[in-house]
Amino acid sequence: MAKVHPNMEAFNCIADVEVYSDRKDEKVLTVWRKSLLFSCSGFTVFDNEGNLVFRVDNYGSGRAGEIVLMDAAGKPLLTVRRKKLSLGEKWKIYDGEGADNPVYSVKKRYAKAALAHVTTCRRHGSGGGARYEVEGSYSHRSCTMYDEHRRAVAEIRRKEAVGGVRFGDDVYRLVVQAAADTCFAMAVVVVLDQMFGSRVSLIKG
User: Fold this and answer.
1) Which of 35, 86, 108, 170 is geometrically suited to a Cys-Cys bond with 90, CB 3.0 to 4.6 A?
2) SS3 of 141, please?
3) What whole-number distance in Å separates Cα of residue 99 and Cα of residue 90?
4) Residue 150 and residue 132: Cα distance in Å, rounded?
5) What is the Cα–Cα distance from 141 to 155, expressed in whole angstroms?
6) Among positive and negative, which fits the CA dihedral 88, 145, 195, 85?
7) pLDDT band per the 50, 70, 90 thresholds, residue 15
8) Which of 53-62, 76-85, 103-112, 121-130 has the lowest mean pLDDT?
9) 40's torsion region: left (phi>0), alpha (psi -120 to 50) or beta?
């Protein structure tokens, strides 16, 4: 693995602004649409104490058509790949890196408020896989992922100005319910960014 050379000045600017939440049923993450590596694009994600928890570093090399979500140490957690030759825009999420069998499928919706439909690819018992709907506006950093019972699982929210520091669209909150998987929620954020983001795609090919 290539040695990491983080942009520490930018890191301190974002990570030093803490997020306080009194709710014990929520996990609040700060998402930065930027890699800490000078030569890369991607994502950097912090917890509410300023600790690095997830990262995406696109080197412009490696396997085409995929994005790898890693932990702070660079261990691959989930891989996002766009499915080719499908009706509508569809993405698959895989365990680790290099796996062949997807664990989640994300399909772009074209309704006014609905953004994406998420399903699990591995069935558990006779009840089938879980289903989620993402609604709202990613471009306005205001959207919610609901489970099949219309319970909020995760939300993307704008990050409020703190101490006179205002944040643009590249810095926002990901609020995840305590019982939900933050890694899965972040992978869905990566897919939404590829579907609806205004910046250049992170994947090549």
Assistant:
1) 86
2) coil
3) 18
4) 9
5) 9
6) negative
7) low
8) 121-130
9) beta
The three-class DSSP label of residue 66 is strand
Residue with tokens 């590249």: 170
Amino acid, single-letter form, for residue 85 = L
Mean pLDDT of the 32-60 span:
87
Residue 43, both tokens: 């994502």
Q: Provide long-range contacts, Cβ within 8 A and 24+ apart, for 50-53.
A: 50/15, 50/16, 50/18, 52/15, 53/29, 53/182
Q: What is the percentage of the chain residues whose pLDDT exceeds 70?
A: 74
| pTM assigned to the model | 0.83
| φ, ψ at 183 (rounded to 5°) | -65, -45
**Rounded-to-integer distance, Cα 59 and Cα 115, Å:** 28
Q: Are 19 and 34 in contact (CB under 8 A)?
A: no
pLDDT in tens, 70-113: 999 999 999 999 988 767 789 999 999 988 999 999 999 988 78
> Once rounded to an integer, what is the mean pLDDT over residues 5-16?
50
Measured distance CA(141)–CA(32) in Å, rounded: 12
Long-range CB contacts for residues 41-49, cutoff 8 Å, separation at least 24: 41/200, 41/202, 42/202, 43/69, 43/186, 43/189, 43/190, 43/193, 44/11, 44/14, 45/174, 45/186, 46/14, 46/15, 48/18, 48/19, 48/20, 48/21, 49/18
